[in-house]
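Usage

Read records sequentially. Each one opens with the input sequence:
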Amino acid sequence: MEGLVCREYRPADTADLLEVRNAIFPPLSAEDCVTCYPQLTAALAYLEDEPVGAIPLQQRDFLLAPGVIATVAIEHAVGVKEEYRSRGIGTAMIEAAREFLADRCDLLIVYRGGERSAGYRFYLKSGHQDLLYLLPAHWTPPAGLSSQAVAADIEVLYEREDEALRVFTAAYAAYGGHAPRRSGYWREVLGGVRFRALPAEILFYRYPAEGEIRAYGLFEVRRRRSDPVMRTLEIASSDGAGGAAQVMQAAGAEAHQRGIGVADYVSVAHPYRGLYRQLGFVEAERGMMIMGQAINPQRLFTKVCRCPEALADLKIDVWTPSQDYTLFEGPEAQQEITLQAKEVIIERLLTRRLDVEGAVAHDLLTIRNGSPEIAVRLGEALPFAPWMHHHLDWL
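and closes with the structure output:
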């Protein structure tokens, strides 16, 4: 579009960012933006010096697989002024973001719902692919629930985060799909941009009531919702489903007393899905997914490949309906192969969300000039990782 300029946000642009964003989404203040910068940046679109579009971007570490950390930029509150929509401005901002983030981020990701919506189609058109599907699950807790877990002040979590980190690690050491937990993470996120824009009452439960924490749960009740619900932000147990059950029953008792339900998102790999079903959670059709696209596939491949030395004799090219490129060239490359697939298969490969041998067997991935032995090697170098979504990470 003639006269359109897309570039990265700077603190001096705060008024422009908020002019677009706050007209569409729950508002942030100028102080919120400046306080959260530089982890919070944005792609801004100007048409003849008028701000017409904004894509806020939260930069964060993201665990793709056990021990594999990528740097991602999470897109949220994406908007274009109404009179300028359907002119390619959103796509231009995505392209600009890929350029200015290229030296510091591996992936663009977005938490998105509505697979039949215009917004979802926009992300597909701009190169994002589905990486994880999530099902909304809702529970109406009955009367009479009892538990050995107790409610505690959130400061207990901050003060005893070493214990919470051990519990989280015990529960999710085999998973990717979320921000890696570290010292200070809970305080940082609960004081960050999401909870500034969407204020909530935060509830924390610990099990047992005394001694070392062996299970805990974080929940929110949004203050601005007309239909309040207690939503699970994070639940973890080093005692398996038994500890998680104690936490959920304590939360359920509180929700029942308030006359509201309990909600979460579950996936195929959710470790407490069986517990939820026993409690009475009812799952709906999938309502959210994590979508993503690699900014630099070659650099991302070097991060996610578990044993590049096993591929040292290969040059690996990629062919999709929209592009061709060399993904990897081993130091002893003697054989050139081409991975032929739709874009979603390649994005899943690069995020450890693909069973390589299964994809080859089911005709989703073709290895040109390759052999079954190469499919095995690729599968060992890039093994599938189950993902667990914690709604605390959502933006």
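Summary fields computed downstream for this record:
- The mean pLDDT is 96.
- The chain has three domains: 4-127, 137-289, 296-381.
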